[in-house]
């Protein structure tokens, strides 16, 4: 049984479809299509502006809106910080670890918790405005689009709440858990479950338009680009992975398979897209050999790959001509989108699980040292040099 607590309908009235500002990162992967792409210029020569300790580990990915950063911790707290200074403005405790990224709209923060609740908080002071209960942990991040808040639970349900009323617009119940965040484009909701099934639903009615069975598990969010849904797939066996279609491209309207990338590896982070290219990390076998890859979306042809020293569980972000992501070596990596060549590695902690958010010319990312790190460029962005 789902329960909406008193006050939910009042606060959801404020959630409407708004364009994402060029300098904000208001939900997981930046926008409802989950591109992972910022409109910011490339951040060159990053250095630490501040690092604030929040808990035992900050594995969640932050959201940035109206000069504030919102992020969850493994201790179950949802924290709000001043984006410029790092000052903690408020904290709100949940009943379980928070690995879900917030979605922020019109003064409301929506975020899931392992306690099984979707929490709705006031962005200004963290006051609890309402909660929605499921029967399982909420690991994936909510998405706000078209006047709806949509989120999945490990109980197998995908729920869409109406902005105008706070009531359930529709709910889909499956047998397999949902750990990814749904992506939305052209009034179609795309998501996958732990049984490896990718779904396309009508945004307004929740009616299933198509489903596609993969040969693995879908543990992270799909990405949508120009009518193509790019679905990452994790192999059923991590130690000795069989040949798996680890990234598949589906027609957004019909679910038709357009192409696939196949091999003895897994993808368990969300891909990033820019122009006609998709960027993602693959992990292979017992030694967890990790490669960063670039594939052309229109053709399905791999453009380049580059080997990384350790496992990557951080989904890449794109700004300008560079990719940014955390690694199990404890570094933030910056590489070229053109060929995957390293530009910079910046030590943060012993491991980085969090995915970066880029806003207002800065990059925000959590780490297992319990800190949220803010990085800023120390060099003039490429193409913006001033003449002497």
* CATH superfamily label: YVTN repeat-like/Quinoprotein amine dehydrogenase
Q: Termini distance?
A: 67 Å
Which CATH architecture is right?
7 Propeller
Uncertain runs are: 1-22, 381-388
Q: Class by helix and strand content?
A: mainly beta
CATH topology: Methylamine Dehydrogenase, Chain H
The number of helices is 1
Largest sheet: 4 strands, antiparallel
Fraction in beta strands? 35-45%
The oligomeric state of the chains shown is: single chain
Number of folding domains?
Answer: 1
Helix content: under 10%
CATH top level assignment = Mainly Beta
- The total count of strands amounts to 32
Radius of gyration: 19 Å
Shape, principal axes of CA atoms: globular
Quick structural overview:
With 388 residues, the protein is mainly β. 1% of the residues lie in helices and 44% in strands. The strands form eight sheets. Strands 1-32-31-30 form a four-stranded antiparallel β-sheet, with no helix packed on it. A four-stranded antiparallel β-sheet has the order 2-3-4-5, with no helix packed on it.
């Amino acid at each position: 049984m789902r329960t909406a607590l008193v006050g939910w309908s009042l606060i959801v009235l404020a959630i409407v479809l708004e364009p994402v500002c060029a300098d904000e990162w208001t939900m997981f992967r930046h926008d409802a299509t989950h591109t992972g792409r910022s409109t910011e210029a490339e951040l060159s020569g990053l250095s630490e502006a501040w690092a604030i300790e929040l808990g035992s580990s900050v594995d969640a990915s932050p959201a940035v809106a109206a000069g504030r950063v919102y992020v969850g911790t493994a201790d179950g707290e949802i924290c709000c910080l001043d984006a410029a200074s790092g000052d903690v403005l408020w904290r709100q405790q949940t009943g379980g670890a928070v690995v879900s990224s917030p979605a922020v709209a019109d003064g409301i923060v929506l975020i899931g918790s392992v306690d099984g609740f979707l929490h709705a908080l006031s962005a200004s002071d963290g006051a609890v405005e309402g909660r929605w209960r499921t029967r399982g942990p909420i690991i994936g991040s909510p998405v706000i689009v078209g006047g709806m808040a949509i989120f999945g639970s490990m109980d197998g349900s995908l729920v869409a709440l109406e902005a105008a009323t706070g009531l359930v617009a529709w709910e889909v119940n499956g047998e397999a858990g949902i750990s990814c965040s749904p992506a939305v484009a052209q009034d179609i909701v795309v998501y996958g479950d732990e049984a490896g099934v990718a779904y396309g639903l009508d945004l307004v009615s929740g009616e299933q338009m198509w489903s596609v069975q993969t040969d693995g598990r879908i543990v992270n969010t799909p990405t949508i680009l120009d009518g193509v849904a790019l679905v990452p797939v994790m192999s059923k066996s991590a130690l000795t992975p069989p040949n798996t279609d680890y990234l598949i491209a589906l027609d957004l309207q019909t679910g038709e398979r357009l192409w696939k990338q196949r091999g003895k590896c897994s993808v368990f982070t969300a891909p990033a897209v820019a122009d006609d290219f998709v960027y993602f990390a693959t992990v292979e076998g017992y030694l967890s050999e990790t490669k960063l890859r670039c594939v052309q979306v229109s053709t399905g042809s791999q453009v380049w790959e580059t080997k990384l020293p350790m496992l990557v569980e951080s989904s890449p972000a794109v700004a300008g001509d560079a990719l940014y992501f955390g690694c199990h070596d404890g570094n933030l990596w910056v590489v070229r989108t053109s060929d995957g060549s390293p530009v910079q590695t910046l030590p943060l902690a012993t491991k980085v699980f969090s995915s970066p958010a880029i806003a207002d010319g800065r990059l925000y990312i959590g780490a297992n040292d319990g800190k949220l790190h803010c990085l800023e460029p120390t060099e003039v962005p490429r193409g913006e040099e001033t003449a002497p």
